Model the fold of this input.
Amino acid sequence: MKKAKSYIQKLISFFFLMATITFAHAQTVEADANGNVVDNVLRSNGLIYVVVGVIVIILAGLIFYLTTIDRKLSKLEKEIKNK
Amino acid sequence: MLKQLHTKWWKVLCVLLLGYTFIYGLLVEIPNVALLHETVRNLFFHVPCWFAMLLLMLTSLVYSIKYLRTGKTKYDLAAVALLRMAVAFGILGYLTGMLWGNYIWGNLVSWITNDTKILGTAIGLLIYFAYFILRGSIEDEEKRARVSAVYSIFAFILLNVAINVVPRLTDSLHPGSGGNATFTVYELDNHLRMVFYPAVIGYFLLGLWISSIIYRMGRLNYLNNNIPIE
Done:
């Protein structure tokens, strides 16, 4: 039986998606016709956006873990209640 | 109470506020503060640890008093769960403060034992460590709950005296005491506040979330051992 995703999990997958996109974006080095590296958003402002990306990934991971524990605990509570 | 712990809106709010804090907190334009420079951003990450700790302790105090009034074990469980998380935030605040202070106030040894606020927090946290040792040493559930509830009332008052009163009477490197400015002085456009207050709420909600899980675990443990909690 497949359970509908909770709001929080949807939110977290959104964060993950954003993080993955930004991370993938950071990997590409675009060069123009003269061979100069073209700055993208992540490379601007002293690369601070890369740090933001790292922090978002960590935060999303921790929150994801927390929601997993929360759900497991809910399941356990239900089992004990029905016992 | 259990029903509220299963509601989702405040957990979603927590994730949103933390996301906002951690993204916007790094990108927001900060006022040019002498000495601090970019580390003024630590206001969004280090200071909320302490604010969340105090808020969690206050919530725990409410549950301790509720326990003493009603004698329901579930309030005792809630009070402990909140305190566990509060102390965790306190330790995080201490560690982050050590790192920050090391670069702003100079050599760690010169201020960590001399600053009244840091000494106060050390004493306050030790008082709360003693709370857990006290709990661990009493076998009987009811006696344990009653003694620790009374203790936590005194502990909260003592911690507040050590953190909030004494540093203001004497001198401290921290803002707001010893003639040091608070962040209201530096900024004219409320940029710092726009991140700081959401950060405090986000940290507090995260603390509530984790302590709700600790509470539910304790509750299951009690139910499993056939100890009534209502």
Notes: The first helix of chain A runs from residue 7 to 27. Chain A touches chain B at residues 6-8, 11-12, 15, 48, 51-52, 55-56, 59, 63, 66-67, 69-70, 73-74, 76-77, 80 (CB under 8 Å). Strands of chain A lie at 30-31, 37-38.
